[in-house]
Amino acid sequence: MTRRSSIATRPGGTRARVYSIRLTEAEVAALEAVAERDGVPASTLARSWIVERLSTDGDVDDVRVIADALATFSQRLAAL
User: CB neighbours of 33 closer than 8 A, spacing ≥ 6?
Assistant: First the structure.
C-alpha cells in the first residue's frame, strides 16, 4: 500500500500543504451552515477566511499572524 502525500495539487497548478485545525462540533456545524448558505464547500469557506485575514496583515511568515487568523476564524464561527 502506498502512502499518500499531504501535499496536493490545486486547480491553479500550485501545490498546497494540508493543515489540520481542531474545531468544536458547534463550530463545525456553524461553518457548514454558512458554507451551505453560500453554496461552497466548508473547506473552501474556511480556507478563504484564513487567506483573507493573512492577506490583510501583510507578513505571512509571522507565526502570530497565522495564530491570529485562526483565532479570528474560530471567533467568527462562534458568533454565528
Answer: 80
Query: What single string gives the DSSP state of each residue in 5-74?
Result: PSEEE-TTS-EEE-------HHHHHHHHHHHHHHTS-HHHHHHHHHHHHHHHHS-TT-HHHHHHHHHHHH
Contact call for residues 31 and 37 (beta carbons, < 8 A):
no
Q: How many CB atoms lie within 10 A of CB 72?
A: 14
pLDDT digits (tens, 9 = 90+) for 12-32: 666 678 888 899 999 999 999
Does pTM surpass 0.70? no
